[in-house]
Amino acid sequence: MSFFKQLISRWVRGLVPFLMAANCWAIDSYNATSGVLTIPQVALGNVLYSNVNITVDQILAASTQAVADSYDTYNPVNNQLSIPSVQVGTAKYYNVVITVGKIISVGNSCTGLFSCYNATLPSLSKVYAGKFLFGFGGVHDTLVRSKLLQTDSVMQQIVVKHSNIININCFYAGSVHPSSGVWKWTNCDSLLALAEQNTGWKKRAHVAFWPFNSSASLNLEWLLVGSDGKNVSREQAIALLRDHITTMMTRYKGRFNYWDVVNEAVDYTQADGIRAGLWKDVIGSDLVEVAFTIAREADPSAKLFYNDFNEWVPAKREAIYTLVKKLKDKGLIDGIGLQQHVKLTSPTTALLDTAISRYAELGLEIHVTELDVEINPDGIYTELTPELSLALANRYKELFAVYAKHAGSITAVMNWNVTDSSSWLLSFPSTHATWPLLFDADGKPKLAFWGLTN
Ligand code: GLA
């Protein structure tokens, strides 16, 4: 056995427990017979080459320590290439340093590392074409103002590269309609203009009415208090809600394909299935139906959605089903938005699968509207370890397998926020580090991205 083969077989023995725990797939692949390693890209200084074939002299080290950078990097001084992973037959090795013989061929090369690198990646919307649309939401989040799509070039490049749908969340009451007669359109105008530059993209608007949010700036409860300090009547409340929804929807009439009309109104512990709060006190249990009736009249060409979280919890699922069925029977609704703010092991894929099957019985479109995976809920980790990165990748893979199983009912999947540095989970419910998305803080794709695209 050659020295190289002995080295490989020693590795295999050493890494078996780690590999058995992992569900691996090919990223970089090594052909042990020819000695050729094929990798998606390699950075030489500031120049990035894609689709590189190189011959390998010797593998120096493999470890489970994090590689500093998810790019493949080549150091021409000592002839060493660092890559995140290598596939040898059926075995997979992580964080590998090798010495390189010669570069046989390279694909494209370009300078300007991020844009160049981004251009070499597979596009998520193309990978899932024929199954469902893919895109992002939370591109304008009041919670992460430092990372707005309009001003962040890395976010823009990622969104443009991977999307064929966008969920524009500029319609929070506090942003767009902060007080009586005051409307602020700048964010919605500019985000929609940016989206419209991308021909063929579908556009979602989020969110016309979020009546039970605990924040006074979001729930529009100020509308309900008259000048005498008392609550307005049901009729007055409906007129005010009509003005709110109609003003937004007619301004952009025909430009949004989908509207989230009502967000988070269900509470299965209430007899009527609707959350308690001032809006219910003033209008009554049919306030969701009232909002959808107004929205239907305001823009009959838009598809109207009801959007909620914890949508897989059986009791809540049934309450959402009942509400949406009522709306469907009256021709007022076209789709259900499943927020999908999930964790590593919750919900189980079985619970999720059951929920989607149940909603699919209604024959409406289903959108995954706000997908992210909280992998550090207790703040135990201070860095994204290779094991955690792999666990996240496996979680994304199993979630997308469920979505793909229901392709047809599920017509779109969107991440909430774009990069780990723009995630709302960095500021809510706590401020510890978390890495819930497919792109790291710098916008580089994580293992989870490669798991979905390879
Ligand atoms: C919910 C809402 C979104 C957004 C996220 C957090 O899921 O539907 O509008 O506020 O929370 O960013």
In short:
With 454 residues, this protein is α/β, with parallel strands linked by helices.
Can you walk through the features of this model?
By secondary structure, the protein is of the alpha/beta class. It folds into two domains: 3-113, no CATH class; 116-453, Alpha-Beta Barrel (TIM Barrel), CATH 3.20.20.80. Helices cover 33% and strands 24% of the residues. The chain contains 14 helices and 16 strands. The protein has an eight-stranded parallel barrel with strand order 8-9-10-11-12-13-15-16, surrounded by five helices. The longest helix is centred in the C-terminal third of the chain and has 20 residues, at 386-405. The chain is elongated, with a radius of gyration of 25 Å. Bound molecules: alpha-D-galactopyranose. Residues 138, 141, 143, 169, 206-207, 263, 309, 339, 370, 424 line the site of alpha-D-galactopyranose.
SSE map:
Elements: H1 3-21, E1 29-31, E2 36-44, E3 47-62, E4 73-75, E5 80-88, E6 91-105, E7 109-111, H2 113-120, H3 124-127, E8 133-137, H4 153-162, E9 165-168, H5 173-176, H6 186-196, E10 202-209, H7 216-219, H8 234-251, E11 258-263, H9 278-283, H10 287-298, E12 303-308, H11 314-329, E13 335-338, E14 341-343, H12 349-360, E15 365-374, H13 386-405, E16 410-416, H14 447-453
Parallel strand pairs: 1-5, 8-9, 8-16, 9-10, 10-11, 11-12, 12-13, 13-15, 14-15, 15-16
Antiparallel strand pairs: 1-2, 2-3, 3-6, 3-7, 4-5, 5-6
Helix pairs in contact: 2-4, 8-10, 13-14
The structure holds alpha-D-galactopyranose.
